[in-house]
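=== Structure Prediction Worksheet ===
Name of assembly: unnamed complex
Input type: mixed (protein and possibly other molecules)
Chain count: two
Listed entries:
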Amino acid sequence: MNIKVLGPGCMNCKTLAGRALEAVQQLGIEATVEKVEDVRAIASYGILRTPGLVIDEHVVSYGTVPRVEEIKTLILTQSAKMQR
Amino acid sequence: MIVKPTRLAVLLIALWVIVYLTLEPAMSVLVSLLPLPSGSKLTEAIRFFLYEAPKVLLLLAIVVFAVGIIRSYFSPERTRQILGKRSPFLGNVLASVLGIVTPFCSCSAVPLFIGFVETGIPLGVTFSFLIAAPMINEVAVVLLLGLFGWKTALIYVTTGLAIAISSGFVIGQLRVERYVEDWVYSVKSRPLTLESSATFEDRVRAGFDAVRDIVRKVYVYVLIGIAVGAGVHGYVPEDFLAGIMGRSAWWSVPVSVIIGVPLYSNAAGIIPIVQAFLEKGASLGTALAFMMSVIGLSVPETIILRKVLKLPLIFIFIGIVALGIIIVGYLFNFLY
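=== Predicted Assembly ===
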């Protein structure tokens, strides 16, 4: 699984990246968390607000910093969707 | 069991009203208990701080809460949809008004700009949004309400809107499309499909989140700002600033703007200081112009926007907004 945090490097983006890492660790899954700071790359995902959270190339949230629990749910729903 | 957000809100609002109403008597008792010589400068400063700081923080909490709920009904995505098919002037008006209520953080200025341009929203309309959004915000309105009263708050909001509408309109007429970085026009983003169905409980929760986020972020600036304001209030003699920031000093408006543009502070820090200026002889127009240029135009935001705008457009943007602020400053110095 690949998780991307979209954001130009502001406070919220850093918090989100930290929480995403924590969510991955708590779930004990194999996943990479990477930060995308290039504005062109961010824009290509079509979000108008940062930070954005992308799981396997699907935007699952933007404009907010979800809590660790919420990120875990997002990861689980997204991986369930992928298996279907 | 977890308490429902709406119930918690009703409870806390009731508590808020009680605290707010008893604040003034409670503080005057507190001040009289302090071992301070009456009438001294220090007493004046401390009294000012003890009255104003809790009042402003309380107002901040309640207004941020309300605005948090209102904002949950708006989003940049919907705003973009609304602005998509508007004629220029009406578009500028709508964009400025929506700039106030749409949740926006200057760190999102670039994706928002690209997203607006991609949907074909005219540049001038996009600028109206980008000018109104940071300049007119709930923190500024609260501080103006708490420290200056509703009239000044209203003047700030209406003149801020006027500047956002007219600056955006003028930029739209200038045909500056060529000064946008070329790659912006070639961005092809994939469509977003995120459905959101918020209940009223969710919106109240959003209100609480807003209070936690914003109050935590600005309370230090509010306290520092009011402390500096209190110091000026107690120690600086009346009419001290009349010569340099008063009505008679015709050059004070442009000078305040020139100083204010590169200065960057949020509304929370600057407004209490400006209030003290006003008390010591600065005129309303000059104070207003200084405040607007500090809050509305900021170096960090222009640096962020430089990623999508070529340098000439950055200068056109700053120049036109600064000119608008100067006109407002003169207007109010003339009227009052």
